[in-house]
Design a protein that fits this description.
The complex is a heterodimer of chains A (318) and B (445).
Chain A lengths: L14 E4 L13 E4 L17 E7 L7 H7 L6 H12 L3 E5 L14 H11 L4 E4 L4 H14 L6 E5 L5 H10 L2 E5 L4 H13 L7 E4 L9 H16 L9 E4 L7 H4 L6 H19 L1 E6 L5 H11 L10
Helix pairs in contact in A: 2-3, 3-4, 4-5, 7-9, 9-10
Chain B lengths: L4 H7 L13 H9 L13 H11 L6 E3 L6 E3 L17 E7 L4 H13 L2 E3 L2 E3 L3 E5 L5 H13 L6 E4 L3 H11 L5 E5 L4 H11 L3 E4 L3 H13 L5 E4 L5 H16 L10 E4 L6 H10 L2 E6 L4 H14 L12 E5 L8 E5 L2 H14 L3 E6 L6 H6 L5 H10 L2 H4 L4 E4 L7 H8 L2 E4 L7 H9 L2
Parallel strand pairs in B: 3-6, 3-12, 6-7, 7-8, 8-9, 9-10, 10-11, 11-12, 14-15, 16-17
Antiparallel strand pairs in B: 1-2, 4-5, 13-15
Helix pairs in contact in B: 1-2, 5-6, 6-7, 10-11, 12-17, 14-16
The chains are: A alpha/beta (318), B alpha/beta (445).
GO molecular function, one term (chain B): 4 iron, 4 sulfur cluster binding
Protein name (chain B): CO dehydrogenase/acetyl-CoA synthase gamma subunit (Corrinoid Fe-S protein)
Pfam families (chain B): CdhD, FeS
């Protein structure tokens, strides 16, 4: 018998809870505990951790969204509540990730409107929800305050904190007990640095999900893949400032040349395969939340992930 | 236990005859120590040296060559578990499968597709690698005819012959026996006959077992029978099973804990029930020969791109030659966009510029392959570099205006570039995706 695999890991990945059910003071029908892995992804003899979660991304202003998705999903994209409902009931996502793209409009100032948007989505779906706030430093503080407040008790995941902008999002997370996404530009040291900054202002480890930033397949994905592997490796070797679950969102996938110019009748298939290949590779590197924008990606991705969680099952060839 | 270069050197003949291809016995010893050379290259080794060095100096995973001619591919000779530890060297061969129950014209079409299809990305031509012919008819004669059909196309693609029946393989080898086809597969039942065939034709051979012990036993039998070029089929029952055992094989091989597992891994994606996902997992998790039914265009491109990404050397960013590049047919009034020579930056920007349909010039400056952000941080991108590049590439003769658009992340340098060059600097967006909108709105003003 060949020797057992032993990598000498010392520390499991930390856990983060997403969503709060009735029992925990929220209204979600399910909550997830992600993380907890004790070795490289999919190598556990008896899997004790769940398969990675699939988040479907929607937005409140589709003029900033991929035409491929708008075409495929149809009119529902112009009604964010209906879209959230569909992501949950029809597309079969585990999580809904709402991007507040309305804040991208020039001179956007109607922050008061965002609270009802978040509340609407939380009513439309009872899945745990990720909220992506603004990209505009001037209104950040107000935006995150509104999101945090609107989702009070629901244990949201708020995005996205970066080295230059993490205070307002951290404040909202701390005030309303939400978790946050901490994004760094494809660099393990910067990821660690940001986590330390967050720790210093009081955000606990079990409220942080690392986003090492995912370049689209063919456009820097290899750097993201290795950053994820290195983060997972360091965490298992005992670096507690990196021992958090990771999220992968290859947001540029639908705008790259290969997908954009795939030609009539092939765009959807190409978009789905590009998302599928990216998500599967990211899952093997350690990502525990996989974000997709094309509804057609969800079913094949879920099927493959289920297969990856089934280890002790050889084909029976002697 | 690996030997140090000096220990190995003591056992070498010390003739410095250069017949191994190295200038001295010492440099050869250093290569052996790093698993970068094969002991057989030295013709003057004593038997004692051979027995001591044999197991410890060969590369931990054997290099196996499949096919002959310009399209042959080599797999194996990997040294790490993670690409960031060094790099992955030999990208998996992705092989399209036909069966001997398909019509001849279908078989010909698939063969031609593998021969002709090329995806050009980041300056490299990406292709599929070979044709696998599977004997599902149960007839040796039908199988041989299918192989003959493939060979008649004269595509000279590396063949993989799949059959449980050695008589069928024997019949097929009449048509491709001299082309180093990969034979699939030796199992407990047929290993002796398969070895005889592989040895007769000098072919690499796949050994197939659902357990690591089983593989080790088959490997021992084959090597003892004089068949050294082996590939391991793990016969995975699930994706999880594949990831687990493929990782185990890689780990046990590179640490030399189980030298008999030091061979490349084979994966038949077509028999997993979810082929596209299997191809993706084969690429990232140590697959070296991946057999698949012909992939539809979407997954074909995604597979070639993922393979290119994973097998790019992480220590050497792919670089563009610095200079002036044109998008469309720019004239004297067209905009000029400056950026770095990191190929990914170049091709991303170029893609968005093409779709913006604004003819323009790209001024590519030499940051030694660093991206904009890192080049600014490391001081590689400076006003002097921009000034010298404008002069060196004769940008002043290309346009009549003196306006330069720089990347958003280079904005801290804007004032200094203006002072050094005398050109008016316009700061573009940080994200290349926004360049089209930027040119339409800002440049037209």
């Amino acid at each position: 018998m060949p020797p057992e695999l032993n990598f000498g890991w010392t520390t499991p990945i930390g856990e983060v809870v997403l969503g709060a059910t009735n029992a925990d003071g929220g209204t979600r029908r399910v909550s997830y505990r992600i993380g907890g892995g004790t070795t490289l992804p999919f190598l556990e003899g008896q899997p004790s951790t769940p398969a990675p979660l699939i988040a479907f991304e929607i937005c409140d202003n589709p003029s900033f969204w991929s035409p491929i998705v708008k075409e495929y999903c149809g009119d529902v994209t112009s009604n964010v509540n209906e879209w959230a409902k569909k992501a949950d009931a029809d597309y079969g996502a585990d999580l809904v990730r709402l991007h507040l793209t309305s804040t991208k409009q020039r001179n956007f100032s109607d922050v008061a409107s965002l609270g009802p948007v978040v509340e609407g989505v939380l009513l439309a779906t009872s899945l745990p929800v990720i909220i992506e706030g603004s990209n505009e430093p001037k209104i950040d503080s107000e935006v995150y305050q509104k999101c945090g407040e609107a989702g009070q008790g629901e244990r949201l995941l708020l995005g996205t904190a970066e080295a230059g902008k993490y205070r307002s999002i951290a404040a909202a997370a701390l005030a309303y007990n939400h978790s946050i996404i901490a994004q760094s530009p494809i660099d393990i040291n910067l990821a660690k640095q940001l986590n330390i900054l967050l720790k210093e202002i009081g955000v606990q480890r079990d409220h942080i999900v690392i986003d090492p930033y995912t370049g689209a397949l063919g456009y820097g994905f290899e750097y993201s893949y290795s950053a994820m592997e290195r983060i997972r490796f360091s965490a298992l070797k005992g670096d507690s400032d990196l021992a958090m679950p990771m999220i992968c969102s290859a947001a540029d996938t639908l705008t790259i040349k290969e997908v954009r110019e795939a030609g009539a009748g092939l765009q959807d298939e190409t978009a789905i395969q590009w998302e599928l290949f990216t998500c599967l590779a990211a899952a093997t590197a350690g990502a525990e939340i996989l974000c997709v924008r094309h509804p057609g990606t969800i079913a094949p991705l879920r099927k493959a992930l289920a297969g990856m969680k089934q280890p002790a099952h050889s084909a029976g060839v002697p | 236990m690996a030997l140090k270069a000096l220990d190995i050197y003591k056992l070498l003949p010390k003739k410095n005859c250069k017949e191994c291809g190295d200038p001295t016995c010492l440099t050869f010893a250093m290569k052996l120590a790093g698993g970068k050379a094969d002991l057989d290259l030295c013709p003057y080794l004593s038997d004692e040296a051979k027995s001591v060095l044999g197991a410890t100096t060969r590369p931990p995973i054997r290099l196996v060559k499949i096919g002959v001619g310009t399209r042959n591919f080599k797999v194996g000779e990997e040294t790490v578990l993670y690409r960031h530890e060094k790099t992955f060297y030999h990208p998996p061969g992705i092989v399209f499968r036909v069966t001997d129950t398909m019509q001849a014209d279908e078989i010909v079409a698939v063969t031609r597709r593998v021969r002709d299809e090329t995806l050009t990305r980041v300056g490299a031509d990406l292709r599929f690698n070979g044709i696998a012919i599977e004997n599902v008819s149960g007839s040796a004669e039908t199988f041989a005819r299918a192989v003959e059909t493939v060979e008649k196309v004269e595509a000279h693609l590396p063949p993989v012959l799949i059959s449980k029946d050695t008589a069928a393989l024997k019949a097929a080898l009449v048509y491709c026996g001299t082309y180093r086809p990969l034979l699939h597969a030796a199992t407990q039942e047929n290993v002796k006959e398969m070895c005889a065939l592989a040895k007769q034709h000098g072919c690499p051979l796949v050994v197939r077992s659902g357990s690591l012990d089983g593989l080790v036993n088959l490997v021992k039998t084959c090597t003892a029978d004089g068949v050294p070029d082996l590939v391991l089929d793990l016969a995975p029952g699930t994706f999880g099973d594949f990831i687990r055992r493929s990782t185990a094989v890689r780990q046990l091989a590179i640490t030399r804990a189980v030298p008999d597992l030091g061979y490349p891994v084979y994966l038949n994606a077509a028999e997993t029930g979810q082929q596209d996902a299997a191809v993706a997992l084969g690429i990232v998790k140590y697959g070296s020969v991946i057999v698949t039914d012909p992939l539809p265009v979407g997954s074909a491109k995604a597979a070639l791109t993922l393979r290119q990404n994973i097998y790019t050397d992480p220590q050497k960013p792919i670089q563009m030659n610095p200079g002036i590049y044109r998008v469309g047919s720019p004239d004297k009034d067209s905009p000029v966009l400056m950026t770095v020579n990191f190929s990914l930056t170049f091709f991303t920007l170029q893609g968005y510029l093409e779709s913006a349909r604004v003819p323009c010039f790209m001024l590519i400056v030499d940051t030694e392959g660093l991206s904009v952000l890192t080049a600014v941080a490391a001081g590689k991108l400076s006003e002097m570099l921009v000034r010298d590049s404008i002069k060196k590439f004769g940008l002043e003769n290309e346009v009549s205006h003196r306006k330069l658009i720089i990347p958003g992340y280079a904005s801290p340098l804007s004032g200094r570039i203006e002072d050094a060059t005398g050109w008016k600097v316009l700061v573009g967006p940080r994200d290349a995706a926004e360049i089209g909108e930027y040119l339409h709105e800002e440049w037209k003003k």
